[in-house]
Amino acid sequence: MEPLPVSSEGFLNSDAVIGEFGIVPGMKIADFGCGAGHIGILAAQLTGKDGHLLALDIMEDKLDSFKARAKASGLENVETKRANLEVLGNTGAADNSQDMVLLINILFQSNKKQDILKETKRVLKPDGTAVLVEWKKGGGGFGPPDGLRTDTNEMQAIFASENFTLVRQFNAGQFHYGLIFKK
User: Fold this and answer.
1) In CATH, which of 3.40.50.150, 3.40.718.10, 1.10.260.40, 1.10.600.10 is domain 14-182?
2) What is the pLDDT of residues 80-90, one digit of tens each?
3) From the centroid of its chain, how far is CA 56?
4) What is the pTM of this model?
5) Contact by Cβ (8 Å): 141, 101
6) Hey, which residues does 134 pair with through a beta bridge?
Protein backbone atom coordinates (compact mmCIF):
# COMPACT_ATOMS: atom_id res chain seq x y z
CA MET A 1 0.00 0.00 0.00
CA GLU A 2 1.35 3.42 -0.96
CA PRO A 3 1.50 6.16 1.68
CA LEU A 4 -1.17 8.82 1.60
CA PRO A 5 -0.15 12.09 -0.07
CA VAL A 6 0.60 14.94 2.29
CA SER A 7 1.37 17.71 -0.16
CA SER A 8 -1.19 20.15 -1.47
CA GLU A 9 -0.58 19.11 -5.07
CA GLY A 10 -3.77 17.73 -6.53
CA PHE A 11 -5.85 18.50 -3.42
CA LEU A 12 -5.73 22.29 -3.39
CA ASN A 13 -6.82 24.45 -6.30
CA SER A 14 -3.96 26.95 -6.29
CA ASP A 15 -5.51 29.15 -8.97
CA ALA A 16 -8.74 29.47 -6.99
CA VAL A 17 -7.26 30.20 -3.56
CA ILE A 18 -4.49 32.61 -4.63
CA GLY A 19 -7.13 35.23 -5.46
CA GLU A 20 -8.22 35.23 -1.81
CA PHE A 21 -4.82 36.38 -0.52
CA GLY A 22 -4.96 40.03 -1.60
CA ILE A 23 -1.62 40.05 -3.43
CA VAL A 24 -0.87 43.25 -5.33
CA PRO A 25 2.09 44.21 -7.54
CA GLY A 26 5.20 45.28 -5.67
CA MET A 27 4.59 43.20 -2.54
CA LYS A 28 7.34 41.41 -0.67
CA ILE A 29 6.14 37.92 0.22
CA ALA A 30 7.79 35.10 2.15
CA ASP A 31 6.50 31.63 1.30
CA PHE A 32 7.20 29.53 4.41
CA GLY A 33 7.55 25.86 3.53
CA CYS A 34 7.23 26.68 -0.16
CA GLY A 35 7.54 23.11 -1.41
CA ALA A 36 7.82 22.85 -5.18
CA GLY A 37 6.03 26.17 -5.66
CA HIS A 38 2.40 25.39 -6.44
CA ILE A 39 1.30 28.60 -4.70
CA GLY A 40 4.59 30.52 -4.59
CA ILE A 41 5.03 30.71 -8.37
CA LEU A 42 1.55 32.21 -8.72
CA ALA A 43 2.29 34.66 -5.90
CA ALA A 44 5.55 35.74 -7.57
CA GLN A 45 3.69 36.33 -10.84
CA LEU A 46 1.12 38.51 -9.04
CA THR A 47 3.76 40.64 -7.29
CA GLY A 48 5.26 41.50 -10.68
CA LYS A 49 8.76 42.65 -11.51
CA ASP A 50 8.72 45.20 -8.67
CA GLY A 51 7.72 42.58 -6.11
CA HIS A 52 9.79 39.87 -4.45
CA LEU A 53 9.08 36.34 -3.31
CA LEU A 54 11.32 34.67 -0.75
CA ALA A 55 10.73 30.92 -1.06
CA LEU A 56 11.78 29.05 2.08
CA ASP A 57 11.91 25.33 2.73
CA ILE A 58 14.03 22.94 4.76
CA MET A 59 14.16 20.41 1.91
CA GLU A 60 16.77 21.17 -0.75
CA ASP A 61 15.00 19.07 -3.43
CA LYS A 62 11.84 21.17 -3.02
CA LEU A 63 13.88 24.35 -3.43
CA ASP A 64 15.50 22.93 -6.56
CA SER A 65 12.05 22.22 -8.00
CA PHE A 66 10.90 25.71 -7.06
CA LYS A 67 13.95 27.28 -8.78
CA ALA A 68 13.31 25.23 -11.93
CA ARG A 69 9.65 26.25 -12.03
CA ALA A 70 10.51 29.93 -11.47
CA LYS A 71 13.09 29.83 -14.26
CA ALA A 72 10.68 28.08 -16.62
CA SER A 73 8.10 30.78 -15.84
CA GLY A 74 10.62 33.55 -16.56
CA LEU A 75 10.43 34.90 -13.02
CA GLU A 76 13.35 37.02 -11.84
CA ASN A 77 11.74 38.20 -8.60
CA VAL A 78 12.19 34.90 -6.73
CA GLU A 79 14.84 34.05 -4.15
CA THR A 80 15.07 30.56 -2.66
CA LYS A 81 16.67 29.73 0.67
CA ARG A 82 16.95 26.67 2.87
CA ALA A 83 15.61 27.49 6.32
CA ASN A 84 14.36 25.87 9.48
CA LEU A 85 11.18 27.83 10.15
CA GLU A 86 11.09 26.66 13.77
CA VAL A 87 14.28 28.60 14.58
CA LEU A 88 13.81 32.33 15.12
CA GLY A 89 15.82 34.30 12.56
CA ASN A 90 16.73 31.27 10.43
CA THR A 91 14.84 32.57 7.40
CA GLY A 92 17.42 35.34 7.04
CA ALA A 93 14.66 37.84 6.29
CA ALA A 94 15.03 41.18 8.03
CA ASP A 95 12.68 42.22 10.82
CA ASN A 96 9.50 43.90 9.53
CA SER A 97 10.49 43.30 5.89
CA GLN A 98 7.62 41.30 4.39
CA ASP A 99 4.14 42.45 3.38
CA MET A 100 2.82 38.89 3.52
CA VAL A 101 3.81 35.45 4.78
CA LEU A 102 2.25 32.38 3.19
CA LEU A 103 1.74 29.38 5.47
CA ILE A 104 0.31 26.82 3.06
CA ASN A 105 -0.04 23.28 4.41
CA ILE A 106 2.99 23.47 6.67
CA LEU A 107 1.82 23.92 10.25
CA PHE A 108 0.35 20.40 10.41
CA GLN A 109 3.91 19.11 9.97
CA SER A 110 5.25 20.86 13.08
CA ASN A 111 4.94 20.40 16.81
CA LYS A 112 6.39 23.92 17.11
CA LYS A 113 3.63 25.93 15.44
CA GLN A 114 4.17 28.87 17.82
CA ASP A 115 7.86 29.04 16.91
CA ILE A 116 6.93 29.27 13.23
CA LEU A 117 4.43 32.02 14.09
CA LYS A 118 7.09 33.90 16.06
CA GLU A 119 9.25 33.95 12.91
CA THR A 120 6.19 34.94 10.85
CA LYS A 121 5.54 37.85 13.19
CA ARG A 122 9.21 38.90 13.21
CA VAL A 123 9.49 39.19 9.43
CA LEU A 124 6.08 40.77 8.79
CA LYS A 125 5.83 44.53 8.45
CA PRO A 126 3.49 46.27 10.89
CA ASP A 127 -0.04 45.49 9.64
CA GLY A 128 1.42 42.70 7.47
CA THR A 129 -0.71 39.73 6.45
CA ALA A 130 -0.30 36.06 7.32
CA VAL A 131 -2.21 33.71 5.02
CA LEU A 132 -2.91 30.23 6.33
CA VAL A 133 -4.21 27.26 4.38
CA GLU A 134 -4.41 23.99 6.30
CA TRP A 135 -5.98 20.55 6.06
CA LYS A 136 -9.49 20.35 7.53
CA LYS A 137 -9.82 18.13 10.57
CA GLY A 138 -12.09 15.15 9.87
CA GLY A 139 -11.53 15.65 6.14
CA GLY A 140 -11.35 12.00 5.23
CA GLY A 141 -8.63 9.75 3.88
CA PHE A 142 -6.77 12.32 1.80
CA GLY A 143 -3.75 14.09 3.23
CA PRO A 144 -2.12 13.69 6.61
CA PRO A 145 -3.63 11.65 9.46
CA ASP A 146 -6.35 13.47 11.36
CA GLY A 147 -4.18 13.55 14.49
CA LEU A 148 -1.77 15.94 12.73
CA ARG A 149 -4.51 18.35 11.69
CA THR A 150 -5.65 21.37 13.70
CA ASP A 151 -9.23 22.62 13.55
CA THR A 152 -9.94 26.27 12.77
CA ASN A 153 -10.85 27.27 16.35
CA GLU A 154 -7.64 25.82 17.79
CA MET A 155 -5.60 27.40 14.98
CA GLN A 156 -7.19 30.80 15.63
CA ALA A 157 -6.27 30.46 19.31
CA ILE A 158 -2.64 29.66 18.38
CA PHE A 159 -2.45 32.78 16.19
CA ALA A 160 -4.18 34.90 18.86
CA SER A 161 -1.58 33.78 21.41
CA GLU A 162 1.03 35.46 19.17
CA ASN A 163 -1.15 38.61 18.95
CA PHE A 164 -2.34 38.06 15.39
CA THR A 165 -5.83 39.32 14.57
CA LEU A 166 -8.15 37.24 12.41
CA VAL A 167 -9.30 39.28 9.41
CA ARG A 168 -11.43 36.65 7.70
CA GLN A 169 -11.88 33.06 6.68
CA PHE A 170 -12.07 31.93 3.06
CA ASN A 171 -13.11 28.82 1.21
CA ALA A 172 -9.98 26.82 0.37
CA GLY A 173 -11.85 23.86 -1.10
CA GLN A 174 -13.11 20.48 0.02
CA PHE A 175 -10.03 19.40 1.99
CA HIS A 176 -8.64 22.70 3.34
CA TYR A 177 -9.62 25.83 5.23
CA GLY A 178 -8.19 29.31 4.80
CA LEU A 179 -7.62 32.05 7.37
CA ILE A 180 -6.14 35.52 6.93
CA PHE A 181 -4.53 37.30 9.88
CA LYS A 182 -2.95 40.71 10.45
CA LYS A 183 0.13 41.30 12.56
Assistant:
1) 3.40.50.150
2) 999 999 999 99
3) 9
4) 0.92
5) no
6) 177
